[in-house]
Amino acid sequence: MSEHAILPPGVQLLALAVLALVLAWVIRLIRTQRLSVRDSLTSLLTTLAALVVTAFPALLAAGARLVGVQVPSNAIFGAGLVYLAVNLLSVTIANSGNAERTRRLAQECALLRAELDRLKARGDAGRPSSPP
Amino acid sequence: MRLLAIVPALDEARSLGPLLASMRAALPDAELCVVDDGSADDTAGVAARAGATVLRLPVNLGIGGAVQAGYKLALERGVDVAVQIDGDGQHDPAQVALLLAPLARGEADLVVGSRFLAAGGFRSTVVRRAGIRYLCWFLRLRCGVRVTDPTSGFRAAGRRAIALFARAYPSDYPEPESLAVATRSHLTLCEVPVTMRERAHGASSITPLRTLYYLVKVTVALLFLPRREPRPGAAEVHP
Questions:
Q1: Is the residue at A131 inside a domain?
Q2: Shortest CB distance from B56 goes to which of A102, A113, A118?
Q3: A110, B56: Cβ pair inside 8 Å?
Q4: Which one in A83, A122, B1, B83 has a CA-CA gap of 20 to 30 Å to A8?
Q5: CB-based contact, A21 to chain B, within 8 Å
Q6: Beta carbons within 10 angstroms of residue A4's beta carbon
Q7: B145-185, pLDDT tens digit by residue?
């Protein structure tokens, strides 16, 4: 099976351009510190993998044959869905972690404030008259 | 026995005053701790004026996060028993003594007040009772927990339960799940009959759609419980 059947050169160029743009965007977000490397690692790696496969469609064809997918373009859709699912899951994991951290911080904050109230009350009680 | 009472409250400024007064009368030696879960009304002010320790959560964490904040305070204070009482007035402070008895006798680490073991009182709607039946069945099937009122938020926790809940307390409708967590950590559970009242003011947070979510959430949580913890004794749980 020829590579041209999978990806016509025009489409391949467009896909490469789009993926390169996405990659450049992610890198820019990291460099301007709007996205942490930790959180962007899955996006970076999966986008890079997509770039490689788009640059060398023979890989996709071989992969499709290996798994037994009849039409290689269907493998693209499959890979695309996996790409989205993986990235979505990594976002959700990060979000759960943040929820847990928020919970601990809020509790700690409340405990400290209660302690502060107690100390203030003790301080006021020890003072002869109310502060000016 | 040193006692801390945990009262999770969200917009309960109206019912909190009388509740705290009756708690003061029923539990004269206890420290009262109101956890204000981000109320918009004067819940925190009412609680502070009534002489309670107030934990003001800066953001709304839900009942699980609020109650856990109380258990963290209990652990910090080093009390012997922490009692959970809802801020909406459906639990009667006079019945706390019933919860404390098994703890004092050393028969249990966690005592749950069950409205279905006693006659009379408020027993919730038919739909919710069916849901509770299902939860009982599933808890017994999955974890071998035998309780009649798994959603009860009227409970007393001994030192081992306080240490566990300060460290690990579920969020989002936490009561049935927390019983499973406690059993998995080799704590002893027991139930005592109590009567509950219908809430005095405001609406319950649990609508029909949320009842469904409640059941699904607890089912999934129970299916995928965290790994069983090793038996205490090897420098675990007890501080």
A1: no
A2: A113
A3: yes
A4: A83
A5: no
A6: 10
A7: 999 999 999 999 999 999 999 999 998 889 999 999 999 99
Q: What angle do CA B178, B222, B150 make, to 5 degrees?
A: 45
Asked if B55 has any chain A CB less than 8 Å from its own CB, the reply is yes
Q: Is A118 on the interface with B (CB under 8 A)?
A: yes
Residue ranges of alpha helices (H) inside B95-173 are: 96-104, 126-143, 159-167
Give the dihedral sign, CA A53/A54/A58/A62. Answer: positive
For A39-93, the pLDDT digits (tens) are 788 888 888 988 998 888 888 888 888 888 888 778 878 888 988 898 899 889 9
Tally of structural domains, chain A: 1
Q: Do A111 and B73 touch (CB under 8 A)?
A: yes
Please state the ipTM of this predicted complex.
0.85
Q: Is the dihedral of CA A51, A56, A60, A63 positive or negative?
A: negative
B174 alpha carbon, distance to own chain's centre: 9
Q: Which helix (H) or strand (E) holds B55?
A: strand B53-56
Domain that holds residue B192: 3-223
Lowest-pLDDT range of B21-25, B136-140, B142-146 = B142-146
Q: Does residue B117 sit within a domain? A: yes
On whether residue A39 sits in a domain, the answer given is: yes
| Residue-number span of the structural domain to which A12 is assigned | 3-126
pTM of the complete model: 0.83
CB atoms within 10 A of CB B217: 16
Residue A113 backbone phi and psi in degrees, to 5: -65, -40
Integer-rounded Cα Rg, in Å, for chain B is: 17
